[in-house]
From TrEMBL:
Transmembrane segments: none annotated. Residues 8-58 form the F-box domain. Residues 70-104 are annotated as: Disordered. Residues 73-100 have a biased composition (Acidic residues). InterPro entries: F-box-like_dom_sf, F-box_dom. This is F-box domain-containing protein. The lineage of its organism: Eukaryota, Fungi, Dikarya, Ascomycota, Pezizomycotina. It comes from the Eukaryota. PROSITE patterns: FBOX.
């Protein structure tokens, strides 16, 4: 084996002019190692190295907003960032020389990134993280683009069109004739697909909010952008240097709303990538059950046998058991699965079945999952079946579960809550210690009074064992907590009076030396895994419930939901009868509808002056 020095030394016999060309054309991943291998090469390639470091600072993490940081960035910060001081004092000169480039403000949109790639194609190879999600309304509609940028993008589109597998001549002609590039039209969808087809080293991808429209899951025919993307992904499977071949992580991009059209179908093309290991998504739907009245279905792509996902986190989603089966039956390597359920429009009229949902996951991934979290953000109806056993999860180490998952007759009983007239025999329910597999070391049980206050009932010595909570904890009084098979933590957003009710259950059971219990003041309003999700990716906008407000005087809402139903929709949370318009201090309400506003808007909300609202403004975008 030759040492690094033996491989480099023959280069030093070459003329300096030729060495300059070699460093200029070196790939950005090898450039620093090459230039730092000896002082001669460093001096020859100094100018190229300065440009390389400036490009890396500017283009490595490209996002429309800085509020979301990846784990990789955080790790680099803790380790001191990029290794930009490997050669001692000379680096101070390098930094000063590149300051005018690296200190420039980050580009405002994908148009600027595409223009930069058209000017220098090496820019594309520097992009490691591309996050196109934004909550800024400026990027959701019209983005000002200079004529020079517009012409550069048109040249790039014209060159790239020769490599696309579909004929887009009509779209390209229309695109070339436009004088405006907007954030929500078809041309931008084509440009986003074009951008993805140019990035060979991207590892982390955050899709734009209009991805649901670009994918066209609601169309009768597949959009051209989907055909291009599928061709790019097919090529990425064949070679490690192809665009998207290194993609490892997908970030969430959809706002969590009731009136939703997002589907797991939107992400399905990426499941064919062999390096895709992590999926973080929000607001996804996959309702394949026959009882759905307005289903948004998901079917696994036929051209993909299995995917390599090892970690999946789905927040604010509505997925039934047949829908989740389509996903987890093709993820044989899955080790980490987290899911929070939120009722969507398509789910109205039938209940969610957590018993079947958990059973499906256990059947396909029980021998690989080490972490499982299933929580509930909002549930319109009681569960049809509850979780009765988790012994299928033979590798499970840590679980975070919502107490409402257990509030229903077990599947093996052959009954559903609907068949039992809304109630069920709680004698079916086993104690938590008997449901868990022996591998479990830590359990967090999430208690949310907003879901179902009646679940806890009026606790007395005679009735406590008949409550769900009482039966779940019925084995704790006989458990030696110093040698407990698992560490049980109860987390909650309960108000103090309800938290006292929970503690009273323990007293009624005679439990004194119980495991750790955490109250509202220590945990906030979300389960732990959801808190970490928000901390990492930022707050995905969610439905605005009156109880979450501190009496704002002015409120502006932009939604796809029909404004005529806002008053009803935003008071759907159980035990909330106050409509949105009746917030105590609310004086000004601005409602914007992402679509078309028919008529003069007279039926879209309250009359000015009602509920104390003095000023009402309606608009459509």
């Amino acid at each position: 084996m030759h040492s690094e020095e033996e491989r480099i030394m023959p280069l030093l016999n070459l003329p300096a002019e030729l060495l300059v060309h070699i460093t200029t054309f070196a790939t950005h991943t090898d450039l620093e190692n090459l230039c730092l291998s000896c002082r001669t090469l460093y001096e020859v390639g100094k100018e190229t190295l300065v440009r390389h470091r400036a490009y890396k600072r500017r283009w490595r993490y490209f996002r429309l907003e800085d509020r979301r940081r990846t784990v990789e960035e955080s790790d680099e910060d803790s380790e001191g960032g990029d290794d930009e001081t490997e050669d001692g004092g000379d680096d101070a000169d390098d930094d000063s020389e590149s300051e005018d480039i690296s200190s420039q403000q980050a580009p405002d949109s994908i148009f600027h990134l595409l223009a930069a790639i058209e000017k220098d194609s090496t820019v594309a190879s520097y992009v490691d993280t591309l996050d196109l999600w934004t909550d800024d309304q400026r990027f959701r509609h019209s983005v000002p683009v200079s004529r020079a940028t517009r012409e550069a993008i048109k040249r790039l589109v014209a060159r790239s069109a020769f490599t696309w597998p579909v004929d887009l001549s009509d779209q390209i002609d229309a695109f070339h004739q436009t004088d405006e590039m907007t954030g929500a039209d078809g041309s931008t969808g084509m440009l986003i697909t074009l951008l993805l087809s140019l990035l060979p080293n991207i590892r982390v991808l955050g899709l734009p909010w209009i991805w649901w429209d670009i994918m066209g899951s609601w169309r009768d025919e597949a959009p051209a952008g989907l055909e291009i993307l599928e061709a790019v992904i097919t090529r990425a499977k064949e070679t490690t240097d192809a665009p998207l071949s290194k993609l490892r992580t997908l970030l969430p991009y959809a706002s969590i709303i009731f009136d939703s059209d997002n589907s797991l179908f939107e992400l399905s093309p990426f499941f064919n990538l062999k390096n895709l290991h992590e999926l973080y998504a929000s607001n996804m739907q996959a309702e394949n059950g026959e009882e759905c009245m307005m289903p948004i279905t998901f079917h696994w792509p036929q051209e993909v046998e299995m995917c390599c996902l090892r970690k999946i986190e789905l927040i604010g989603c509505s997925i039934d058991a047949p829908g989740i089966e389509e996903l987890v039956s093709h993820t044989p390597l899955l080790e980490h699965f987290a899911y929070s359920h939120t009722t969507k429009r398509s789910e109205v009229g039938h209940g969610w079945n957590p018993g079947e949902f958990v059973a499906v996951i256990g059947a396909y991934c029980g021998n690989t999952l080490t972490f499982l979290a299933i929580t509930i953000q909002d549930l319109a109806d009681r569960p049809e079946n509850g979780v009765a056993s988790m012994h299928e999860f033979t590798a499970l180490i840590e679980a975070e579960l919502d107490i409402d998952l257990f509030d229903g007759p077990p599947i093996w009983s052959g009954r559903t809550r609907r068949e039992d007239g809304g109630d069920w025999d709680r004698s079916y329910l086993e104690a938590l210690v008997g449901m868990m597999p022996p591998s479990v070391e830590k359990i967090k049980l999430w208690v949310n009074v907003q879901h179902n206050v009646a679940l806890y009932g009026r606790v007395t010595k005679g009735a406590s064992s008949r409550t769900v909570l009482g039966r779940l904890l019925s084995g704790l009084e006989d458990m030696d907590t110093s040698a407990a098979p698992f560490d049980l933590t109860i987390t909650s957003d309960l108000a103090p009076k309800y938290w006292r009710t929970v503690l009273k259950v323990l007293d009624c059971l005679g439990v004194r030396d119980y495991p750790r219990w955490v109250g509202k003041n220590e945990t906030g309003r979300k389960p732990e895994w959801e808190e970490k999700f928000v901390e990492r990716f930022g707050h995905m906008p969610t439905p605005i419930w009156p109880s979450d407000f501190h009496s704002p005087r002015k409120l502006s809402i932009c939604t796809r939901t029909d404004l005529r139903h806002l008053g009803e929709f935003y008071s759907m949370r159980p035990d909330e009868t106050t409509p949105l318009f009746a917030l105590p201090q609310l004086k000004e309400l601005n409602l914007s509808f992402l679509g078309y506003l028919d008529g003069d808007g007279e039926d879209f909300g309250p009359e000015p002056g009602s509920y104390g609202v003095e000023k009402l403004r309606l608009s459509s975008r």
